[in-house]
Specification:
Elements: H1 2-5, H2 16-52, E1 61-62, H3 68-84, H4 86-97, H5 103-140, E2 151-152, H6 153-170, H7 173-182, H8 188-193, H9 195-209, H10 215-239
Parallel strand pairs: 1-2
Length: 241
C-alpha cells in the first residue's frame, strides 16, 4: 500500500551539506508551486467571496483605505494557494523526512496520511458549516436600526480564513495522537489521566488562536478540540498500541 502513495525510500547515507542542499531545492520547488497556486487562486477570490457571502446575512462588505481590498484578495489567494499546493508541500516534506525514520514509523505515516487529509478537510467543512455561521449570527444579532454593521473586507476575509484553517488543524489532533500511540509515546490511560489539563489547554489554545477576543468564539473553537481529544482517547483504547 505504501508504494502506491510514495516511491520506495532508499536509506542512503548523506552528508550534512547534501541534506542542506536537498532541503534548499525542496523549499524552492515548494515556493514555486505555491506562487503559481496563488496566481490561480487570486483569479478565483470573487467566486470564493460569493460562496461565503451568506455569512454576511445581507450586509455588504466595505473597505476604508485604497489598499485594503487588494490585500484582502491577496490574503485569501495566499491561503488558497497554500491549500492548492499542499500535496506538493506534503510530498517534498515526506521525501525529506522519511529516509530518517524507522520502517515502523514510516508504516504509521503511510497509514495515517490519507486520514490526515480527510480530517483537515472535515475541519474546514466544520468551520464553514457550523462555527462561522454560528459566530457570525451571534455577532450580527446585535444589529439594530440605529446600530448598522459595516464589515470591512480585510477583517472579514481574515476572520473566515483564520477560523477555517484553525479548525482544519484542530481536526488533525486524532492523527497526531494516534501516531504518538503507534510509536509508544502515549496511551489511552495517559490521555485519560491528563484529561483535565487537556481541557484547560484546549480553552487556552482557542483563546490565543481565535482572531477575536470574545469568549463565545473561543468556546466554539475549543469544543472541537475537546471532541477530537475524546475521540482520540477512545480510538487508541480500541486499537491498542
Amino acid at each position: 500500500m505504501a508504494r502506491t502513495i510514495l516511491p520506495e525510500i532508499e536509506d542512503q547515507p548523506m552528508t550534512l551539506v547534501g541534506h542542506l542542499e536537498e532541503l534548499r531545492w525542496r523549499i524552492l520547488w515548494s515556493l514555486f508551486y505555491w506562487i503559481v497556486a496563488c496566481f490561480i487562486c487570486y483569479q478565483l477570490v470573487p467566486k470564493l467571496l460569493d460562496w461565503v457571502r451568506p455569512l454576511l446575512q445581507g450586509n455588504k462588505l466595505i473597505f476604508t483605505n485604497p489598499t485594503e481590498g487588494f490585500f484582502a484578495y491577496l490574503n485569501a489567494a495566499m491561503v488558497g494557494g497554500a491549500c492548492l499546493a499542499a500535496p506538493v508541500f506534503l510530498y517534498h516534506f515526506l521525501m525529506f523526512v522519511l529516509p530518517g525514520l524507522e520502517k515502523g514509523e514510516r508504516r504509521w505515516i503511510y497509514r495515517l496520511l490519507p486520514l490526515s487529509i480527510f480530517q483537515f478537510l472535515l475541519g474546514c467543512a466544520f468551520a464553514l458549516k457550523l462555527v462561522l455561521p454560528g459566530t457570525m449570527g451571534f455577532f450580527l444579532g446585535f444589529a439594530t436600526a440605529e446600530l448598522v454593521p459595516q464589515l470591512k473586507i480585510g477583517e472579514f476575509v481574515g476572520f473566515v480564513v483564520t477560523v477555517t484553517v484553525i479548525c482544519g488543524i484542530i481536526f488533525e489532533l486524532p492523527i497526531v495522537l494516534l501516531f504518538l500511540a503507534g510509536i509508544g509515546l502515549v496511551s489511552s490511560k495517559f490521555l485519560a489521566r491528563h484529561r483535565r489539563m487537556a481541557y484547560f489547554l484546549a480553552f487556552v489554545v482557542a483563546a490565543v488562536a481565535t482572531p477575536t477576543p470574545d469568549a463565545f468564539t473561543a468556546t466554539v473553537v475549543a469544543l472541537p478540540i475537546l471532541i477530537n481529544y475524546e475521540v482520540s482517547l477512545w480510538l487508541i483504547k480500541f486499537c491498542g498500541k
